[in-house]
Design goal:
This protein is of the alpha/beta class. The protein has eight helices and five strands. Strands 2-3-1-4-5 form a five-stranded parallel sheet. It is globular, with a radius of gyration of 15 Å. Bound molecules: shikimate-3-phosphate.
Length: 170
């Protein structure tokens, strides 16, 4: 890893891309702690992300997501799996740039993401295929600004981790 870079890896990408699964495996391989932002929010609030959206609304969720991001970033080294929307909130985007870690975008075509999310009930922002596609398009310009892009289409999580390790930035 670059000597001036902090030993913090932020995994980002759209919902369903595998940030949590890949993050846990990557943490194991590096022997670094793994922090799943959504899981810490759920544990901290004793409820599900869906319930937080339903009871308190998305703006409240974004506030606690930001607090969770700042808290998680105090751990070093760490692999941090962001939520699908974390990196596209401008204050978070700026914070992550300043935090000095490495950002890795797990990329996957929309169709495969849709297949993976369909039929599950745990994602409040997966409402219908049209709004899912719109959100995806809106977010791509942010995701593209990550330090690295790792394609994940048709690839299992272990291979994705191997491809991340091949970046040799750690
Ligand atoms: C969100 C994605 C979810 C979760 C929340 C909001 C989003 O995380 O943070 O439902 O804005 O795309 P995953 O990307 O892990 O599904």
């Amino acid at each position: 890893m670059h000597p001036l870079k902090k030993r913090l890896i932020y995994l980002l990408g759209f919902m369903g891309v595998g940030k949590s699964t890949v993050g846990a495996l990557l943490g194991e391989r590096l022997h670094w702690p793994f922090i799943d932002l959504d899981a810490t929010i759920e544990a901290g609030h004793g409820t599900t992300i869906r319930q937080i959206f339903e009871n308190a609304g998305e703006p409240f969720f974004r506030q606690i997501e930001r607090a969770a991001l700042m808290e998680a970033s105090k751990t070093e080294p760490a692999v941090i799996a962001l939520g699908g929307g974390t990196f596209v909130q401008k204050p978070n985007f700026d914070y992550i740039q300043e935090a000095g870690g490495t950002t890795i975008w797990l990329d996957c075509p929309l169709e495969e993401l849709r297949r993976r999310c369909e039929g599950k009930n745990d994602r409040p922002l997966f409402r219908d295929p049209a709004s899912f596609a719109q959100l995806f398009e809106q977010r791509l310009p942010f995701y593209r600004q990550a330090d690295h892009r790792i394609p994940t289409e048709g690839i299992g999580p272990e291979e994705v981790v191997e491809n991340i390790l091949r970046l040799q930035v750690f």
